[in-house]
Amino acid sequence: MPTNYLPPLCDPKPLRIVSVETCVPTDIWPWLLLVRIRTEDGREGYGETAYAPHAVASLIHDWMADRLIGADALAIESHWRFFYERFANFGVRGAELRAISAVDVALWDILGKVCNQPIYRLLGGPVRARVPAYNSCGNPAYGKVHFGKVGWPGYGSIGEAMTSMSAIGRSSESTARGMADFHRVKRRIHGLMRKLDRESRDTMRGIESIAAPDMKN
User: Which of 20, 86, 141, 216 has the smallest number of Cβ neighbours within 10 A?
Assistant: First the structure.
């Protein structure tokens, strides 16, 4: 049975949504989708998600925007429940869930700006003074694609081999500088990456020698 969630305009003075926009920044990463939601008072909330960005954008514009435009941007839980319960009727995984996530992040961003507080405070506040972070090297398909097809985004070894790291055009020095501030680095070595050529492997070793000379495999 559907949840008795609030209608899109339940507050006597709602902060109405006036636009929902999406962008695929191919110069950054062609699998990335950026979402921007604007309100009538000029505030903007930003969200993002990854993989199959055009499919996710279609769900947002063709289906979700019909509820969002003119609705209260701060009725975050109401919107989430509405979308989740309806997507569940035909598949709540994949592009559908990523679309909900991107919109949800953008709406929380707006709430943070309305309250003039960081989101972590709105979610219950800090529980520790510092949070450790690591650099995820991902694989050679991450980042801008300089030529050819995007490639397969998954973890398996079936399909075409990834473009080599050297072909993507990232230098060891520039990549290492981006990793230098992290104490931990994750490398993903799955079936596709095992097919990389010798030059690509040499590039990875060069990155390690500059950014983390004491790194152990």
Answer: 216
